[in-house]
Write the structure tokens for this entry.
Amino acid sequence: MTKPITEEAITNLYCDTFPTSLTIADLGCSSGPNTLVAVSEIVKVVDEIRRKLGHKSPEYQLLLNDLPGNDFNAIFRSLAGFQERMKKQMGDGFGPCFFAGVPGSFYGRLFHAKSLHFVHSSYSLKWLSQVPIGLDGNKWNIYMASTSPPSVLKAYYMQFQTDFSLFLKCRSEELVAGGRMVLTFSGKRSEDRSSKDCCSIWELLAVALNEKVGGGDL
Ligand SMILES: C[S@@+](CC[C@H](N)C(=O)[O-])C[C@H]1O[C@@H](n2cnc3c(N)ncnc32)[C@H](O)[C@@H]1O
């Protein structure tokens, strides 16, 4: 669902300025089969357009961010094979691509001012910077649930607002003028706490955990 949105954003960015070097950051990249998917798709879009237009390939700087506990070594070890596959797929004239791991929380500054052309983040912004303050009265739940009092919803809302505002402030300092950002994360359309829009899976997990606690011998 988000692929066409990302494609449109990177196409517009490239065609607005035809940069000779492009710095792309993926925030919350994790380490595993999905880690390099986003950046490689973005690079492929640019390469296709620049070929059609007969332009020389830009140099790519690909910045992979996650929390310090992320297995960056596994990512680094996979890069040689990944670069080989990219070169084969894209053919002559592609790149070069320079990779760097950037450990740290995206709820703070991570990059030089005005250094990023494109910021991508998928399924990471739903992680808050801390457990919200004011979760009293949410006993037996591990998140917002149909039995949570309104104060709990407010506590999550306030924490998200603080975190997301900080995220946007930091990125606004790091993006170049005219840079683009595509953020994918889940939300809910309904104000109804028991709506299946987003929280129901956590309610099910809470039921399982409560069973274990209650079961005692498990
Ligand atoms: C579900 S994974 C998403 C992985 C990948 N982007 C994807 O779409 O498949 C969420 C990632 O966000 C990272 N993350 C959570 N909070 C973060 C923060 N404050 N700063 C940087 N990364 C964070 C987690 O460590 C985790 O690797």
User: Anything to note?
Assistant: Residues 68 and 103 are 5 Å apart (CA to CA). The pocket of S-adenosylmethionine is lined by residues 27-30, 34, 65-67, 70, 105-107, 122-124, 127, 129 (CB under 6 Å). Helices lie at 3-17, 37-52, 72-90, 150-174, 200-215. The chain has one domain: 3-215.
